[in-house]
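Retry 2 of 3 after timeout on previous attempt. Resubmitting structure tokens to design endpoint.
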């Protein structure tokens, strides 16, 4: 019984306390009354595509709307071919055609929340990786209507995390509040990234862990992520995000 009590205390301190704190901070802020009242325009983060002819890849994440926005974010992928005059944005959503292409500006606010730039790849490396990204997007197993579940997944973050695991050369991991990123497609229990630098173990996205060069050390519980970032020293706090360098 003492072991169970200690485990429950650890769960409360590590996972629930930060979640309650994040919800409290969210409650003190102003929020749009609905989708139509929210801001969806460009945040002005990306340069105009014609100003730089190099190929580019960007991974974005922004807190989502409603009460779930207190603990969860939405991620998407942006690419630009060498010499292209426009960006291409890919999102996984829960309505209509699930994988949307260019349904918002590439760096748009998401439900009035400013996006965070998670990763950037440019130049010749981006040229090589864009076809791999497009291949991973085409192969995503939940691309059909109905292939979306808010929690524990597969959702928008499951989609982006799938691409990042399939193309590990991007070198990115979604933030701790990207609920659904740890859901492995097709009922996988264990996944080793193609470059063998990250190992993921999960029980349908409900409990598990990730360890490796990119992930550092993470422990997952009910879609919440806690852990340590080793590549860029920092800590990963459920609902609140990453704190560190």
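Retry 2 succeeded. Sequence:
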């Amino acid at each position: 019984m003492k072991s169970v009590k200690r485990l429950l205390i650890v769960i409360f301190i590590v996972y629930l306390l930060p979640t309650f704190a994040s919800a409290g901070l969210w409650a003190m802020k102003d929020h749009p009354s609905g989708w139509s009242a929210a801001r969806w325009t460009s945040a002005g983060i990306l340069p105009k595509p014609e100003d730089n002819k190099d190929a580019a890849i960007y991974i974005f994440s922004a807190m989502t709307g409603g009460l779930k926005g207190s603990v969860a974010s939405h991620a998407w992928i942006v690419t630009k071919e060498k010499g292209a005059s426009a960006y291409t944005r890919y999102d996984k959503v829960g309505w209509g055609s699930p994988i949307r292409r260019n349904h918002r500006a590439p760096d748009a606010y998401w439900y009035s929340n400013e996006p965070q730039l998670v990763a950037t790849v440019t130049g010749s490396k981006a040229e090589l990786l864009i076809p791999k990204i497009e291949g991973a997007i085409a192969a995503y197993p939940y691309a059909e209507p109905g292939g979306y579940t808010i929690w524990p997944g597969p959702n928008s973050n499951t989609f982006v995390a799938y691409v990042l695991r399939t193309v590990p050369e991007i070198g990115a991991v979604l933030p701790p509040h990207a609920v659904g990123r740890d859901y492995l497609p097709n009922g996988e229990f264990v996944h080793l990234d193609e470059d063998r630098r990250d190992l993921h173990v999960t029980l349908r996205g409900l409990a598990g862990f990730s360890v490796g060069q990119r992930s550092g050390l993470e422990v997952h519980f009910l879609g919440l992520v806690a852990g340590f970032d080793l590549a860029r020293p920092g800590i990963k706090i459920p609902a609140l995000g990453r704190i560190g360098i």
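Attempt log closed. Helices lie at 2-27, 124-139, 156-166.
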